[in-house]
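Researcher: Let's do a round of design. I'm pasting the structure tokens now; please hold your answer until I've finished.
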């Protein structure tokens, strides 16, 4: 994400006085992606929930040795 943001900033800064709509559409798209990442994080908490569900499912099954 860092490189994408740096690349977008260079693209916007390289514009002369006119405003490039494609560059600003890309900025808005990346902004939307970051907002969605903040709403639905996929960090360790989700992995812990998945492991807890898997362990509950495996409780009734015989374990291999």
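Researcher: That's everything. Go ahead.
Model: Designed sequence:
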């Amino acid at each position: 994400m860092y490189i994408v943001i740096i690349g977008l900033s260079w693209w916007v800064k390289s514009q002369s006085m006119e405003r490039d709509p494609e560059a600003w559409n890309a900025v808005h798209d990346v902004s939307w992606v970051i907002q969605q990442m903040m709403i639905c994080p996929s960090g360790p908490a989700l992995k812990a929930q998945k492991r807890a569900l898997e362990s509950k499912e495996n409780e009734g099954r015989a374990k291999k040795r």
